[in-house]
Amino acid sequence: MSDGIGATYGITPMASLSADADELLLTGSRGTFHLPRAAVRKLGRGGFYPWLFRGIRIRHNIASYPDELVFRPMGVPEREILDCLRVLGYGT
Question: E-assigned strands of the chain?
Fold first, then answer.
């Protein structure tokens, strides 16, 4: 997980992403972020830092949250997660 200031790193999962049709919930050592679907502008491929385009970048419009939220899944391809989020109604 990255929040634009710092990132978690290691072979042990340090963040989790859960989703339903109403909300994304990103939790980790960098914080807990509740993102209502209406606040999620777009989901896509992570940026250059910290994982060289790996991960899922969450673009949102919640002013009190960091501009950059990126989740890097372990053991599941990013594309598979993005496909599931698209089925739930999130823009990817």
Answer: 15-19, 23-28, 31-36, 40-45, 56-60, 69-71
